[in-house]
């Protein structure tokens, strides 16, 4: 039986995102789920990264979050 992880939840991810990206501000950060390009641009601007570096950081963060979500899923 295949078990799929639940969709990623920004509210659950935010504390870990804030730890990884310390300049995140919840009131100014674009939605990662609705505007990934905007989030990447925001991250690049606030963390002194190139767009490519920020995109890679976001992809890496989302990958680790997907692994975290998989660990939280209990098989049915």
Explain this structure:
It contains 3 helices and no strands. The protein is mainly α and 76 residues long. It has one domain (10-72). Helix 2 packs across helix 3 (51-72). The longest helix is centred in the C-terminal third of the chain and has 22 residues, at 51-72. The termini are close together.
Bin the helical content.
55-70%
The backbone outline, from C-alpha atoms, is globular
Secondary-structure-derived class: mainly alpha
Order of helices and strands: HHH
**Proportion of residues in extended strands:** under 5%
How is the main sheet built? none
C-alpha Rg, in Å?
13 Å
Low-confidence stretches: 1-5
Number of helices: 3
Give the end-to-end Cα distance, rounded to a whole number of Å.
Answer: 9 Å
Q: What's the number of structural domains?
A: 1
Rounded average pLDDT: 83
Task: Tell me the number of strands.
Answer: 0
How are the SSEs placed, and which strands pair?
Layout: H1 10-20, H2 36-46, H3 51-72
Helix pairs in contact: 2-3
Q: What key phrases describe this protein's structure?
A:
76 residues; mainly alpha; globular; single chain
Q: Can I get a quick summary?
A:
Helix content is 58%, strand content 0%. It has 76 residues and is an all-alpha fold.
